[in-house]
């Protein structure tokens, strides 16, 4: 899983897992008042769990110059997480509220929020390797008129799926179909952020391209190919 971050703290030789789980890792928020959603963190472990959060702003998402900038200056906080840290007893669940402060956007803003466990001492007679598993949620703050616009564009000798809209969409599956029911899956997938593209390798010359797109809802679109 791309959004799973794994950190190792070397305490001994035998592995011990510090468990934590979250109920979602992709969130969609609007750029209007009261735009909020919750992430529920659970502690199924037998030890007390300490959770800290970190907020990262994603600049130029999906591009070669993409940067993830940790937000630490209070004046720059456009996404709030409450609480920012918490203590969970064994078996306890805690709700973290995410609230967007961005307003009147022309294009969506992208953030990543890390939920990072911090644990106490290992209660074991033998030394062990304690494994801390942190989760990173992908958060999209979208304008009121948000829309993705996916097209198939010829670029020299190759074709690209491009998104000229102002919000992202995920390309889940691409198939080349010669006729109804006669389709072959192509190795093309990924998230199309606003203003980005994905190359379609080994492009067929006839039939049509069927693309499964997933945003807050899913749809299949078809692009006829020149014969």
Automatic annotation (TrEMBL):
The keyword Signal applies. Residues 33-144 form the Pili assembly chaperone N-terminal domain. Residues 1-18 form the signal peptide. GO terms for cellular component: outer membrane-bounded periplasmic space. Pfam families: PapD_N (PF00345). SUPFAM superfamilies: PapD-like. Keywords: Signal. GO terms for biological process: cell wall organization. InterPro entries: Ig-like_fold, PapD-like_sf, Periplasmic_pilus_chap, Pili_assmbl_chaperone_N. This is Fimbria/pilus periplasmic chaperone. It comes from Microbulbifer okhotskensis.
């Amino acid at each position: 899983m791309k959004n799973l971050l794994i950190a190792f703290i070397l305490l001994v030789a035998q592995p011990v897992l510090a468990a934590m789980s979250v109920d979602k890792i992709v969130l969609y928020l609007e750029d209007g008042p009261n735009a909020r959603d919750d992430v529920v963190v659970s502690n199924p472990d037998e030890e007390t769990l300490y959770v800290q959060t970190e907020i990262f702003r994603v600049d130029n998402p999906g591009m070669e110059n993409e940067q993830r900038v940790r937000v630490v200056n209070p004046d720059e906080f456009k996404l709030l997480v409450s609480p920012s840290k918490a203590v969970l007893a064994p078996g306890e669940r805690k709700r973290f509220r995410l609230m967007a402060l961005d307003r009147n956007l022309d294009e969506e803003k992208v953030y990543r929020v890390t939920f990072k466990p911090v644990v106490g001492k290992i209660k074991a007679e033998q030394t062990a390797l304690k494994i801390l598993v942190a989760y990173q949620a992908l958060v999209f703050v979208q304008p009121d008129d948000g829309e993705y616009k996916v097209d198939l564009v010829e670029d020299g000798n190759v074709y690209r799926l491009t998104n000229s809209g102002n919000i992202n969409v995920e390309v889940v599956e691409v198939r080349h179909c010669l006729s109804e029911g006669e389709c072959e899956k192509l190795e093309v997938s990924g998230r199309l952020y606003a203003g980005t593209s994905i190359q379609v390798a080994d492009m067929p010359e006839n039939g049509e391209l069927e693309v499964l797109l997933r945003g807050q809802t899913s749809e299949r679109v078809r692009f006829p190919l020149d014969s």
